[in-house]
Amino acid sequence: MAMPVVRDYRRLEQRLQRLSRRVWHVEPVGLVDGLRFYQVRPRKPRAGPTILLSAGIHGEEPAGVEAVLTFLESSPAGARVVNWIIWPCINPYGWERNQRRSRQGLDINRQFRGRTRCEHARLIKRLVAGRHFVLSLEFHEDVDGQGYYLYEGCRDRTPLAPAILARVARVMPLDPRPQIDGHRADGRGLILRPLTRAAMRRRRQWPMAYHLFAHHTDHVLGSETPVGAPLDRRVAAHLAALEVVIAAVSGDRGQ
Ligand SMILES: [Zn+2]
User: Fold this and answer.
1) What residues does the ion ligand 1 have nearby, CB within 5 Å?
2) Residue at 4 is within a domain
3) Could you give the number of structural domains in the chain?
4) Ligand 1 centroid distance, CA of 116 (Å)
5) Which CATH number fits the domain that encloses residue 44?
6) Does the residue 98 lie in any domain?
7) β-bridge mates for residue 213, sequence order
8) Span from the CA of 47 to the centroid of ligand 1 (angstroms)
9) How far does residue 86's CA lie from ligand 1's centre (Å)?
């Protein structure tokens, strides 16, 4: 039972094609649900840490996709300091219909443990094979969100959540709930969920962040905006989080 189309993926593709070719290299790297899956990288890759930035794994979370496009279009100076792998819209079929799931009816963000028939998850696993990222930042949204909140998993490094939440609080309120999405939260926008090996083993359906944290990075962040807030505020909140991440990676975290 497909939802009606409410967004035009060709328009998104046109925006990607109009990006500065001096700065970005835009490449379709696969087909998902019959639509092109785009990967964006710097035109001139640098030696340095690589950030994995992604959005739109859930089709009904448009602010993340818009935030990535805005970032690519503005390509701020900070963007040129680090390396990137960027997936602006992981689930284009869902994004077009404002539906969470893929055309196959799968929540892509639960398909990362073991074998799967989800072509998005299979493609992503291929794309990251053999790679290491200093950090993975995912943009999400929450229809029940009452403010901005954040997931963070990191090992052997300083958490960025305090800096990100302090920065985003200047853009929009932080989510005050003590329980968010089934997890304990601190009432100021931070999900309290230590991402340990044991916790990961217990979970049967892995989100993308678990796969990345298990094999490709020591640091995962999930930036979550409330769908009820105006779109421009939600985009600004994600971009504020990204700004903190870039500053941290390009500054005291060079490795
Ligand atoms: Zn999501």
Assistant:
1) 58, 61, 140
2) no
3) 1
4) 19
5) 3.40.630.10
6) yes
7) none
8) 31
9) 17
